[in-house]
Amino acid sequence: MSSILDGLASHLDDNTIGSLARQIGADRNQTESAVQAALPMLLAALAKNSSQQSGATALHDALGAHDGGILGNLAAAFGQPGHASDGAGILGHVLGGRQPTMERGLAGVSGLDAASASKLLALLAPMVMAYLGRKTRTDGLDAGGLASMLGHATASTRGDGSHPSSILTSLLDRDGDGSIADDIGGMGMGMLGKLFDRQ
Fold first, then answer.
1. pTM of the model
2. I need a labelling partner for 154 at 20 to 30 A (CA). Which of 2, 36, 143, 198 fits?
3. Angle formed by the axes of helices 164-171 and 28-49, to 10°?
């Protein structure tokens, strides 16, 4: 599993998942399942955007405003009034017109309603940017290094195309008509669930 996903998961303890559940109005188990799908979805979108030099440069520049400070207390950050609105702005840049399709995909995978799926993505987006911003600084990554890291993280979980990361990546290329049931209906959560296996 991607080291980026492992790193993100390390910041999502029981208290943090509980905070997310309260914010989106879902039970804890359902929220955890949704997070397991949402994180690779967001990383796949960032990897796709960064596959072109202009996109990689734009992301690298944007990460300059994300120092990773919120990672110290995510449970509190998720409850801040401006956190979700900041995330909505990030999603607008990252997903663009594909956002409704991805929200429906997340809802279909997790069982969340559309509004809760949308809010969850908005809450997680600043967390992902904070983590990438900190990693970019600590690892001294330029735009090309950042793009390579994201591309590797996505490719390392792609396998033969049946892995959820591949399915989620394919959704990014859809035209937004919402015809995604066949693609996500068989998406198992088992492998992604290992991210949260704290046994």
1. 0.79
2. 198
3. 60
